[in-house]
Amino acid sequence: MSLAQILGLAILIVLVVAIVVIAVRRSVLARSGGVDVCWRRRLRPDGRGWVLGQGRFRGDEFLLYRSFSPLPGAARKLHRGTLVLGERRQPVGTEPDLLPVNSVIRRCTDGGTTFELALSEQALTGLRSWLESGPPGDRPTPGLFHRGIRKT
What we know:
Elements: H1 3-31, E1 35-40, E2 51-58, E3 61-66, E4 76-79, E5 83-89, H2 95-98, E6 104-110, E7 113-119, H3 121-132, E8 145-146, E9 149-150
Antiparallel strand pairs: 1-2, 1-7, 2-3, 3-4, 5-6, 6-7, 8-9
């Protein structure tokens, strides 16, 4: 066997192992309650910069994992106490081609960092429920009035 054949075989084995690791990781995330989500930190008008991945709720964190990464850890952690869902918008430009079908985009902030999340309507409902289900007193109440009682 020549050096070129050995090198080609080694590259093929590495690619197959990487594909298997990515597929197994995605399967484990899906079975453990993961949802499909896309995110981007740089808000660009041309619709580029989206990262495809899965999100998983763990305690007070929403963990974001990249779809095409063999690394086991989360690429980003969002915290229930600091995550604020902002305005909602529909995909524009090339975004409908890049994002999952029927995605809803929300501009968010987490600890002062602005970014966008794209997820299905069902996943957005789950995210909102998770945000609202924090322990009492965990999040400040917006506005002066809450259930008709004035705060002093």
